[in-house]
Every structure is written in structure tokens, then in C-alpha cells.
Amino acid sequence: MATVLTPPTECSTFPCLGRQDVHVWSCDLSRHDGDRPSFAALLSIDERNRAARFAFDQHRQRFILSHGLLRVILARYLAAEPGRIQFETGPHGKPALRGQSVAEQGIQFSLSHSSDHALVAVAVKRAVGVDVEWCRPEVEGLKLAQRFFAPDESRAISQAESDDQLQLFYRYWTAKEAYLKGRGWGLSLGLDRFELLFGDLSRPALVRSTESGTLDKDWSVQSFQLADRLIGAVAVEGEGWNVRLLDAATALVR
User: Fold this and answer.
1) How does residue 203 score in pLDDT terms, banded at 50, 70 and 90?
2) Where are the alpha helices (DSSP H) in the chain?
3) Residues 6 or more apart from 212 whose CB is under 8 A from it?
4) Which of 4, 61, 145, 201 has its CB surrounded by the most CB atoms within 10 Å?
5) Within 10 A of 182 (CB to CB), how many other CB atoms are there?
6) Structural contact between residues 187 and 129, judged by C-beta atoms closer than 8 angstroms
């Protein structure tokens, strides 16, 4: 279950997605700013309405770019027109592809964006959840962890070197968000109801219930550092999977 960062030189062809593969697309939204008009034209009426509800233009444009990129990425796997892709949502708002033909292909996905960066996770016949966050220096990570995280997690952050506490807080935060999104639960479960058991960054974290102490044997979470202060995580259902991190700006050859 290793994470492989694919450099631009290896992205001349679109990658093949096998049953054991989890593709995580790293999207620098600023590099796609010129595509914004064409991406906006791909969005559904519902997506356009959601974009229009943002109070700030910067947030509106990021929504358009991230959701437009999601459609372009999924279209390559589905061999479909990006503007014709249809979505539906689960009870807690988890999006999924709609339609008999896409159901037969079994493509599942997850989208997250923070500031000018987005991540899109794609897998075949296994649920995934993804999260990405910029580490903001003004965030009081330890105080938030003590309020919302499991006791062992907040203790681990408190015992870290002061310069590492914020980084560790975001590592937990993104992993928790990715897991909840993958399970389709949203924040209804509560961040203190489960805890992440981390090893090193190269190995997926296990998930354990803080109430029963039992492991969730169906899920694990892979964290990765995308930039100096940019952290991501992908939660994946099942076993025997490998994460491949891809650069959307170089791999999406038009």
C-alpha cells in the first residue's frame, strides 16, 4: 500500500486504473485559471447555482475550477463527455456517479479543495474519501485537538515538538475528514468517536473506535505531504491497494 508520486515526464498517456489502484489527482487550481470559462460551461444547473451562492468571487472561482476538473478527470475514466456526467448524493451528502453505464464500470471518487489546491481520488469498486488542507499558522491545533479529537490523539500532539504540533494536527484532521467522507457519514459521527493509528508517512493509518477499541478492518488511511504546508489524505475501503499521486496539470493532455 505504497504512495507513488508520478512526475510530469511519466504522464504522457492517461494512466490505467486497475482494481488495486487508487489514483489521487493533485490539482493546482491557479494553473487552470485559463480554463475557467470552459469548466463553467461543463457544470450542471445545480452546480452553477451552488457556485452563485458564494459571497466572494474567489471562492466561486475555486468551486468552478475544482468541479470542472473533477468532471474532466472522471470523463477520461468513463470515456464520456464531461458535461454529460450526472451525480447523485447519499443521505449525508456524499456524491456519486449516476447512471446504469457508470454503475457497471464501478468508478468511485472523492473531491476536496483548500485554497488554491484540490485533490480528486478515483478507484474502481471500492469507496474512497479524500481531504486536503493548507496548514494555516494562526490555527491553534492543540486546543482544537483537545476539544474535538480522541484523547490519545490530542496527547500525541501535545507531546510533539512545538514546531511539529500544527503539522501533526493537520495530519490527523485530513485523515479523519477523508475517513468520514469515504464512509459517507459526514461529521455526524464525531471526530472523537474514532482515532487514527499512525506509523510513518509511507504506511496507511488504521482506524480504531474509541468506544469499543475495535479496529475498522474495512478501511485504512494514507497521508501524504504535497508541499511544505499542504497536507492530504485518502481513505480507502478494502485491502491490497496502492496510491498513485498524479499531477493534473501535466497528465490531463487535451
Assistant:
1) confident
2) 36-42, 45-52, 57-78, 100-105, 141-148, 151-159, 162-183, 248-251
3) none
4) 145
5) 26
6) no
DSSP-assigned states of every residue in 139-184:
--HHHHHHHHS-HHHHHHHHHS-HHHHHHHHHHHHHHHHHHHHHHT
pLDDT value of residue 249: 86
Let me know: does 193 contact 180? Beta carbons within 8 Å. no
With 0.85 as the threshold, say if the pTM is over it.
yes
Would you call 170 exposed, middle or buried from its count of C-beta atoms within 10 A (0-12, 13-18, 19+)?
buried
Nearest to 59 by CA among 68, 67, 51: 51
Helix (H, G, I), strand (E, B) or coil at 91: coil
51 φ, ψ (degrees, to nearest 5) = -65, -40
pLDDT at position 12 over 70: no
Q: From CA 216, how far away is CA 208, in angstroms rounded?
A: 6
